[in-house]
Design a protein that fits this description.
Layout lengths: L1 H10 L1 H17 L4 H7 L8 H21 L8 H20 L1 H20 L8 H17 L8 H23 L1
InterPro entries: DUF4924
Protein name: DUF4924 family protein
């Protein structure tokens, strides 16, 4: 699980963020009980005993950080949210200078506005946070075999396009 997180962090920042949101929710689902996480999750993971021990330490570290930062019930770790901020800064920069990105974003914008309206005044974050939450919510709904509201699939596709372009832009800056 650590290796997956590290690969995603290097290859695809939005996927890393969503994966880490899943890990936070997994910890919450097991009510921060590391013995249960070890028994029901880690023990079934096809890696060496050494890697299982490292994974358990990783979950322990994430759990402690979540408690310290007060994200036991909701919210996300600041180390993960820094990556959302990186994507948001890239988003605002690209809107000013990249016509292709602007066109991709323009397709997502009505869906972002709809999400804001559906939130009924609740602060749901910046536009990139909304895209990430939309994709993550869609994945959770699929995992739970819940019905996907009409039009939501199109919204998620446009959110994915925005996030993919941002990731490609960031990867281009690294090279």
């Amino acid at each position: 699980m650590i290796a997956i997180a590290e690969k995603k962090l290097q290859a695809n920042l939005p996927e890393y963020i969503i994966y880490m949101y899943q890990m936070e929710d997994l910890i919450r689902a097991y009510d921060f009980n590391l013995a249960d996480i070890r028994q029901y999750v880690i023990s079934h993971y096809p890696v060496s005993d050494e890697e299982k021990l490292a994974t358990e330490r990783w979950f322990s570290h994430l759990s402690e950080m979540m408690k310290v930062e007060g994200v036991n019930k909701t919210g996300h770790l600041s180390m993960i949210q820094k990556h959302v901020d990186t994507l948001a800064v890239t988003h605002w920069q690209l809107l000013k200078e990249d016509q292709t990105y602007y066109q991709i974003y323009h397709k997502a914008k009505p869906h972002i506005i709809q999400m804001i309206m559906d939130a009924n005044g609740e602060d749901i974050g910046n536009e990139i946070q909304i895209c990430i939450n939309g994709v993550y919510g869609f994945l959770l709904a699929k995992l739970r075999s819940r019905d996907i509201p009409k039009g939501y699939g199109e919204a998620i596709e446009t959110f994915g396009d925005v996030l993919s372009y941002l990731n490609l832009s960031l990867k281009g800056k690294e090279n």
